[in-house]
Amino acid sequence: MSSVRSLPPTLGGQAVVEGVMIRGPRGAAVCVRNPDGEIICETHPVRSISGLSRFPVVRGIAALGDTMGQGMRAMIWSAQVATGQEPEQPSDSSVRATTALSLGFASAFFLLVPALASRRIERRVKQRRFGGLLEGLARIGMLVGYLRAIGRVPQAQRLFQYHGAEHRAIQAYEAGDPLEVEELHKYPNAHVRCGTSFLLTTTVISSVVYAAIGAQSLAGRMVSRILLMPLIAGLSYEAIRLGSTASGGPLSLIFRPNMALQSLTTSDPDEAQMEVALAAVKAALALHQEA
Question: What's the pTM?
Answer without folding.
Answer: 0.84
